[in-house]
Amino acid sequence: MSDRSNKAPAKKRERKPPTKKVPMPEQDPLERRKNFDEVALGYDAEQAVAEAEKCLQCRNPKCIDGCPVEVNIKEFIELVRVRRFMEAALKIKETNSLPAICGRVCPQETQCEQSCIYGIRNEPIAIGRLERFVADYARAHDEPMPEILDRIGRKIAVIGSGPAGLTCAGDLARLGYDVTIFEAFHKPGGVLVYGIPEFRLPKDIVMAEVEYLERLGVEIKYDYVIGKIRTVLELIDEDGYDAVFLGTGAGAPNFMRISGMNLVTVFSANEFLTRVNLMKAYEFPEYDTPVRIGNSVAVIGGGNVAMDAARTSVRLGADEVTIIYRRSMEELPARLEEVHHAEEEGVHFRLLTSPTEVLGNESGEVIGMQCIEMELGEPDESGRRRPIPIPDSESTINVDTVIVAIGNSPNPIIPQTTPGLDVTYWGTIIVNEETGMTSLPGVFAGGDIVTGAATVISAMGAGKRAARGIHKLLNGE
Amino acid sequence: MYEILFKKILNENTKFMVVDAPEIARVCKPGQFVVIRVNETGERIPLTIADFDREKGTITIVFQEVGKSTKLLGSLEKGDKILNFVGPLGKPTPTEKVYGTVVAVGGGCGTAIVYPVARAFKEAGNHLISINGARSMDLLIYRREMEEISDETYETTDDGSCGVHGFVTTVLGDLISKGRKIDLVFAVGPVPMMKFVSKITAAQEIPTLVSLNSIMVDGTGMCGACRVNVGGQMKFSCVDGPEFDGHEVDYDELMGRLNAYKEQEEISDRLWNESQGGAA
Ligand SMILES: Cc1cc2nc3c(=O)[nH]c(=O)nc-3n(C[C@H](O)[C@H](O)[C@H](O)COP(=O)(O)OP(=O)(O)OC[C@H]3O[C@@H](n4cnc5c(N)ncnc54)[C@H](O)[C@@H]3O)c2cc1C
Ligand SMILES: Cc1cc2nc3c(=O)[nH]c(=O)nc-3n(C[C@H](O)[C@H](O)[C@H](O)COP(=O)(O)OP(=O)(O)OC[C@H]3O[C@@H](n4cnc5c(N)ncnc54)[C@H](O)[C@@H]3O)c2cc1C
Ligand code: SF4
Ligand code: SF4
Ligand code: FES
User: Fold this and answer.
1) Which of A451, B132, B193, B236 is the most buried (most CB within 10 A)?
2) B278 within a domain of the structure (yes/no)
3) Is A134 exposed, middle or buried (0-12, 13-18, 19+ CB in 10 A)?
4) Which of B40, B223, B235 to mutate against chain A (most A CBs within 10 Å)?
5) Is the pLDDT of residue A250 over 60?
6) Does any domain span residue A10?
7) Which residue range forms the structural domain that includes residue B231?
């Protein structure tokens, strides 16, 4: 900038102090500790316009490069500024079919907002909050249906109704394909419904997106575990599907290789969250599925899953909830907002700590957890500094419940029942990066089943790519 | 929605239902199970496929009413519908093999689960000995069915009201001590029963299969609720089982895990009984 060349400091042009995002209205932390209602309440029109007005409308909008599906951020924000909210929503929907969800759960600080030019000196433009605002506006104001091409009489099977499957199905339905989604659970949405809690992503929003797909003509069959009731090859060879998309996610929970993992009050985050979210155990006994919560809960892990499990524990009434993570605050992989919210709600963080044994009593209930302290060494292959145990630093913490949130692996049911489907050592399915096609012609895959546990938006991006890949294949290109 | 086509009361708290589920009936095999959810507020519970008819497209379930979910299911009548019915889950029993002499042991409601597997063992050409046990005569189920498929049939009751006075292990122990050559034991019933059966057969190194009834949520390997310790390794009953080598299972741990939700189950059960106008 010119400042540096100006020798005389007196002449220095006055700079405005850095601005912050228009604050997000939120439920009070003390109040929300007791309920499952959404924490962030959303901008109103005035707040959205005020935020949009700050956007520089950059000639080279870096924000767009930061978004995995390249939402036209610059143009949608301009439409917000001039209060054409519905058009703003349609602009986003050109590349992102689930904006109400992404606006809420994308890790914006490492994606669009990280690259925002305004953010170099200030807090970046609140792209996620604006995206959420316009999507919510459109949903409340009867958004128009997109144009659907004529039915072309070809059938596609989509396995799994997580963000990857929903996106792939939507794109293909719009192109005129007859799409059937096969879902193992009794509800659609994948992790959006069984994993991410109501207080972060209300289920009505996911259901509205699913209804929108149904209006596009997508059929959803529930209670269908593909690989068990029907195999992928049978769908193609016997049931007449022209192509299959596998969007089955990474749903199999990992446990630690330490003793005590099978104790009665040790739960995988998946079990805990599925009981609470999908089965509505927080409304027990109106809903029949029980959930068990102790007074003092340790959650092992530092990602979004760990934050969700910790914040859910708070809401179920645990007195003391502690995140146990083996690296430091800086390496915590969870979204920044979730970490802040967890802290506000009273979740403790015990960093640079790793469990070595869970201790139980005679009836198999947890009575404590032995942990060792860690220090950070040189960066490993992932670029993060490797945690190394400090000798003789073991101590026992007092807990009665342990929730394990150290990641999920791909579910092997489909690979095991689909001969010829190539997978990696970790069980993820191998695909052509560009088309999404697997080693089996006509069988495509995308989302966590390909990448391992990742993000909603990357799963959607993969669903989109595969829809294009399928369309190309079936049109002989 | 899955319609109940037929219902029979086997005894005071054991019910038999035939459910319309053609796509599952088309592919299921002995030893597999379904996960059901009766209604929108219902819980997901696993039940073994007690029988199937590929032509009629039906699945039979036999269940003991032990708490809210099984009582709710038991309160449904012919023509009513079950909201969710997922399957077939779990690994089938390896029944095609000829082992020689197979002893099928069923305790209580477990006999209904033993039946289709035992029948398959018989059809594969094995010599089938069945031992059917219960607390008392009125709780013995599948008596005629087991008799029909077995080469030798034994019945036991804890109170001596029918058959041998004692436990299934009394008969099994007898057979073993008489020197009968047994090539495989297949046992399903309460955990303590499976534990003791495995104890007896371990001494003689008789291969023993048990079907574990761990608590489940999804039944597809996604939650880990059903994990059991088999031979020192963590296994998921729903995808690695439900059948395991009986000599390798940590039964005490399994019993502990089955009690995980005791307190809540009692609340649900009491509320259900009250809603039915009865006392707890
Ligand atoms: C608790 C939690 C919190 C998260 N928070 C965030 C967040 O804040 N932001 C973010 O970007 N990401 C987050 N993630 C990650 C994100 O949710 C996933 O990366 C994303 O959902 C993956 O989408 P998917 O479509 O590949 O699979 P999933 O969402 O896993 O969906 C897969 C679907 O396939 C079904 N299925 C599986 N096997 C079969 C079968 N054999 N037959 C039929 N159906 C089958 C499953 O039931 C499921 O519905 C979170 C994940 C979890 C678990
Ligand atoms: C693979 C498998 C096959 C089974 N097959 C049969 C069968 O054919 N017939 C039959 O009568 N029973 C069967 N069971 C057991 C049956 O699932 C339980 O009796 C039932 O879930 C009890 O629910 P409830 O609400 O009526 O009782 P509750 O009061 O909730 O519980 C009674 C006991 O049942 C067990 N239980 C509770 N919830 C579950 C759950 N979600 N999953 C598994 N067990 C649970 C617990 O040990 C509990 O102490 C099977 C279990 C498994 C794992
Ligand atoms: S989809 Fe996600 S990354 Fe892309 S603009 Fe929206 S919030 Fe940002
Ligand atoms: S980079 Fe930031 S300031 Fe520039 S157009 Fe994008 S959102 Fe607006
Ligand atoms: S029931 Fe969930 S993993 Fe087995």
Assistant:
1) B132
2) no
3) buried
4) B223
5) yes
6) no
7) 212-262
Residue type at B226 in one-letter notation: C
Which tens digits make up the pLDDT trace of A277-298? 999 999 999 999 999 999 999 9
Q: Which of B222, B266, B272, B275 is the best residue to mutate to test the A interface, defined by the most A CB atoms within 10 Å of its own CB?
A: B222
Asked if A214 and A220 count as a contact pair (C-beta separation under 8 A), the reply is yes
CA distance B106 to B115: 8
Question: Ligand 5: which of B35, B216, B261 to mutate, judged by most atoms within 8 Å of the beta carbon?
Answer: B216
Residue A145 inside a domain? The answer is no
Q: Which of residues 403-432 of A touch B (CB under 8 A)?
A: 411-413
Domain assignment of residue A100, yes or no: yes
Full-model pTM? 0.92
Q: Which residue among B24, B83, B222 places its CB closest to the CB of A252?
A: B222
| pLDDT average, residue stretch A313-335 | 92
Q: A101 CA distance to ligand 3 centroid (A)? A: 10
Specify the pairing of strand B208-211 against strand B243-245: antiparallel
Structural domain count of chain B: 3
The mean pLDDT of A330-350, rounded to a whole number, is: 91
Instruction: State the helix-helix crossing angle for A336-344 and A304-315, rounded to 10 degrees.
Output: 20
Last residue of a domain, one of A105, A140, A175: A140
pLDDT at A8 over 60: no
Asked whether residue B268 is assigned to any structural domain, the reply reads no
Residue A17 — φ and ψ, nearest 5°?
-65, 155
Residues B55 and B136 reside in one and the same domain: no
The reply to whether A182 falls in a domain is yes
A367 touches chain B (CB under 8 A): no
In a domain, residue B107? The reply is yes
CATH of the domain at B157: 3.40.50.80
* pLDDT at residue A2 is higher than 50: no
* Residue B197 and residue B125 share a domain: yes
Is there a single domain that holds both residue A423 and residue A399? no
Q: How far is the CA of A112 from the centre of ligand 3 (A)?
A: 6
Mean pLDDT over each residue of chain A, to the nearest integer: 91
| Nearest-CA residue for atom 2 of ligand 4 | A116
Residues B88, B48: Cα–Cα separation, whole Å: 9
A389 upstream amide cis, omega within 30 of 0: no
Of A383, A406, A429, the residue at which a domain comes to its end is A406
A318, A339: one domain: yes
pLDDT in tens, B92-107: 988 878 888 999 999 8
Atom of ligand 3 nearest to the CA of A73: 5
Backbone angles phi, psi at A385, to 5 degrees: -70, 135
For residue B250, name the pLDDT band (cuts at 50, 70, 90): very high
**B80 belongs to a structural domain:** yes
Average pLDDT over chain B, rounded to whole? 91
In this structure, the answer to whether residues B82 and B108 fall within a common structural domain is no
Residue-number span of the structural domain to which A134 is assigned: 29-140
Helices A163-174 and A456-474, packing angle to 10 deg: 40
